[in-house]
Amino acid sequence: VVKLSTTKLEALATVLFLGGTALTVASLFPPLPPRPVDPLPHVEPVASLATQPSALPSHVGPSFEDDRSLPARAIPVVDYTFNVSVDTDLHTVAGSGTILWRNRSTRSIDQLYLHLYANAFQSERTTFLSDRRPGGRGVGPIRDYGDIEVESFSIRQQGGDNLWPSARPASSTNPDDQTDMRLPLPEPIEPGAQVFIDIKWRTKLPAIVERSGYHGSFHMVAQWFPKLARLEPDGTFAHFTFDRLAEFYADFGSYDVTISVPANFVVGATGPRLTDEVHDGRRVVRHVQSDIHDFAFCAYDGFEELRRDVDGVDVRVLYPNGHEANAREQLETAAFGLRYYGRRYGVYPYPTLTLVNPPPGAEEAGGMEYPTLITTGGRWWKHGNDGSSRALTLHELGHQYFYGLVATNERRWPFLDEGITTFAEVDALDEGWGDAGGAYLPRWGLRASTVLRHTGVSGGQDDVIAKSATEFVSGYTYGRLVYSRAALVLETLDRVYDGGLRRALGRYARRYRFAHPTPEHLMGVVRDTIGEDAERALRTCVFDRGWIDVAVNDLSCSGGTCTLLVTRRGNVELPIEVAWMHPDGTDTITIWDGKAQQTALTLEATAPVVGAILDPRHKVMLDEDFANNAIRRGDRPSAWRTRGVMSFVAALGLSAVSP
Amino acid sequence: MNSVARIRWLPTLPYVLAGYALRLLVGMIATHPFVALVKRTLGGWPSGDRMVFESGGLMLAEVVRLHGPALSGQFEQSALILLTMLPVGMVASALLLSALASDTPRCIHSVTVTAVARFVPVAWITLVQVVGAVGGIFVAFVVREGVTSALQAFFSPRTSDLLSVVVLLLGGMLAFTVVVVTDTARATAVHVGLDTAQSVVRGISTFASSPWPLCMAFASRASAALFVAVVAVTVSLWTGVGSPSRALAVVGLQQGALITMACLRASWLARAMELSTRVPTSGADSCRSARNGEQSDPNRDRDS
What we know:
With 659 residues, chain A is of the alpha+beta class. Chain A is built from 10 helices and 31 strands. The longest helix of chain A is centred in the N-terminal third of the chain and has 22 residues, at 6-27. In chain B, 78% of the residues lie in helices and 0% in strands. Chain B is built from 10 helices and no strands.
């Protein structure tokens, strides 16, 4: 028998306890389920899946609309064929090529509008950089300006002369802003006619600011080329200066872009890569994609790559060294998202999806959507229990179905993109990961919709949701209302009408694919799908600062009749479930139409009633206050669980300061 | 090595439990506003405060959202209460050390007299401990930021982050050393009757003369306490508080963990006291000890 000294025994005990502690701590972070949990049941029967990939797993859930109604192609308005060369030392992009533009309107066009978005970073006098509204992206100082200079712009059908010298800023309010340029034409372009435009330009990328620019050798090349403004059917151009809170709006068409970068750089770009050649120390790649309305690419000599085929879509993740776990999670999340959103909003029609994880220092380039390319982000350890990377991936991927395919005017109606996409993201997280959507520990998780309610209700009714991004007084208000509150409104309608909003959005996304709808189109679909009450509630919420707080005022019982005095505060009317609680824990559910501001509800009770709850299943997520929804007869229960746990936490802290 | 008496902590269990009870009481007082707020917020719901712990976090988030400013104030108030416990904790610590050093720990009067007599050095050394340990960790975090930035010029972000953890470990080791030395100094201050400076010197010399036994004595108990706390938290999470029986089990487990940790603490102090007596006393220490006369021969055999 070996006799150990006290010190050696203590050393052994130390090792054992530390090992045990490590193992115990590890059990606090269980791995995510290998695949998302089964979705909650829905009342809507599964529609035809004729055009869905056959490999869709059953756990993704039902489709709410027939994909056979999907248009196969967008009506092309503008086609870009560019050759561009990236100087990664000077951070410039030299481009030339041809634009084929068609006048799809009913009027002849005598001037064109071009967006030169990169000029937003030209000087402190631009509308973008002189914007002093607090909050939102791009508020930090810019370390290196950027701009775009058009060297020539000629129309073959109009003599081929360089027309650019006659181009002028279109903004009447800020002559120093050259993001929106008006170009008079020598001859009008008649309805139905098309022109070929030869163009040559040079873009100097800024240091990373608002999604675009360079950081070290990483180059995120977005909003980088002269882009024709969208021509509305009535012959007017949707042209605008680049606003810091606003995003974009453009016509559909095809992009054929050949990109030259140093040979050691990896390129990620919109659409499939048709060629990839290296000669004379340069890598030349060609990407071609139709039915899209923008094109972005990135180039970096530090990218690593993950790749996977998801039901015919080539999903590629580009990420910096050390971020593999994060990238792998994003890849799995994107795979789920493609299937889930495909069921909800129509099949993803493109052959590729590229996820770009910007390197540290270039985080501002992350969290943005372009057709078939999204930028994500997150530190290398942000995966697993922390759901932020999954949420970001699902959000940006969700944009493909609304910003990308439905293609609303993001500047004029930002909630149609960000609000609906945030709802889609939270819905996907709730359905796919259940209570673990936000974060999770053993047997406890933070649900994504919980986070949504917190931010959406906290946003209050500061302003109208449905208005132009330029009209918001701050990025904070914009974020709270356009993202969170709009999504919370949709979440509420979906719960109150038992999945109705998802059915409506499924129809909306399919019916208006490639169609640039407006809020009225959404209202119409909601009315058709759910009903006029739902449409009225949605309209009130987004156009009229809608809010609601249902509250219980009193509960009394006399004989066999119980009376519940209830109040609905706010201007939104929604049907409310009422649960009458019985002593044995069962309940009787009735429905209050929620139209009266205050009313007395009665129940001819067959069993004693000991309490009542308005909206017991938390369907009205927009409710300002859940605490006043319930009443019980008799004493309040003591919060002994809370006392026990909290006193333990406090005593643990005291053990540190009071040894 | 000197022939040293074994100092047993078990006879001081009443003091250990009194310290635990004091911490529990203060903890309940500090968190009472939050508990009352939860009770009033969710009192109308049949599930009551159980909803706070439900997975999904809906009602927990609701309580936080509805009472954010109030909770912020309550949090600050609770933090202040915990801070004010520092001097109270010094008294409790002095009483425990006095009991450990006493031949008659059940004699509350003599234990209290000694504790009062040695309170000043105990208090000063406690402050040195807090400042030293917290400062060490704080400096480590500050230095780590710079080290991480410097490393990123050569390594990937992940490698830089992982390498810079070494700085935190160094800070942790510094804090560890400070706690070991100052705990030993406090034990010496009561046991031998030295003043603050002499106690610290004795703590340092004890550490210098027998670092391995001293560190292992502390590390074994500290790691055991850490293990117990982590197990209590983990099992609580796995078990949940959904049913009354589970909730009661969780509360019982948590309180058991707190008592165990208090016992481990007493065990460590007894061991530190024991080890400090192995260090040959200097002439100055002996004189001082004789002059104070609070304690008899520190090398007495209390096990006999």
